[in-house]
Amino acid sequence: MIKYVLKRLGAALITLILILSVVFVLVRQMPIEGYFDNFDKLDESVIRARLTQMGLTDPLPVQLKNFFLDLLRGDLGESARYSVGASISDIIAAKAPLSIYLGLMSMGLSLALGIPLGAAMARSKAKFWDKFGTVFIVFVNAVPAAVYYILLQSYGSRALGISMLFDRTDPATWILPVFSMSLGNIAYYAMWLRRYMVDEMNSDYVKLARAKGVTSRTITMRHVFRNAFVPMIQYIPSAVLYTVMGSIYIESLYSIPGMGGLLVDAIKRQDNPLVQALVMIFSCIGVVSLLLGDLLMVVIDPRISFAKKEGAR
């Protein structure tokens, strides 16, 4: 198992280095205006001096090496337009806690609603909960997320009698953003749990338990649900990515002062260093979540064996 974990850690590290390198190179292809405030009012000599100071006139391999050295020291550079001269690390540190808190709340809500919905669908095939869940899953996956986010904001705020915009001091305004971020994961959990539970219900051990007179509820909760939930662990990375992607749009939609809204603002203002830092952070979240999904699967599922089979080389 240790060998497998080390191998996965090594693969994740290589993937992360490649992603960071690609993002770095792509950002370097963007116009240099994104590194200056009031670019049109600056003299060419000032621009050249500033580019030299930032190391942007060095060969690309040298820039990449310096970038990784700065990254190891925790230096993400300075904002060029969003907050001129401010440390990007400080900007992100001020925004990240709110995004993390909202993300954790949305994932908790996803588990609290998606898992029971999937279980109810599996237990009542072709009945109300199964039909309701199927319609919900199809709607969430077929309709563009931006459409039902806007509908939820518009009609939800009217129904609840709350502001359409986020207010940190008013807990009621947290409801719609958190629920919006959780919709994709609710549908995802419900869909896959239903599938796994239906597969387990057709297994031989379930038929044997029924023949012995074990009640349907006991079979479902003690055996089917437990065995069906284990493969769900591998979808934790997808849940994290759904939350991250949702937060980018939703934080901007509700004017939430978090990292998602910060990325939108940085792109609008063409702040190249800040865009680079945020894209890399979101990419790292994706890679780390995939790694955690693999490792959790190994720890929780006892059926996974790392011993070589007889005759294997």
TrEMBL record:
Pfam families: BPD_transp_1, BPD_transp_1_N. One of its GO terms (biological process) is transmembrane transport. GO terms for cellular component: plasma membrane. It is found in: Cell membrane. The chain crosses the membrane at residues 9-27, 98-120, 132-152, 172-191, 232-254, 274-300. Keywords: Cell membrane, Membrane, Transmembrane, Transmembrane helix, Transport. Residues 96-293 form the ABC transmembrane type-1 domain. It is a multi-pass membrane protein. InterPro entries: BPD_transp_1_N, MetI-like, MetI-like_sf. PROSITE patterns: ABC_TM1. Signal peptide: none annotated. Gene3D superfamilies: MetI-like. PANTHER family: INNER MEMBRANE ABC TRANSPORTER (PTHR30465), OLIGOPEPTIDE TRANSPORT SYSTEM PERMEASE PROTEIN APPB (PTHR30465:SF0). Belongs to the binding-protein-dependent transport system permease family. This is ABC transporter permease.
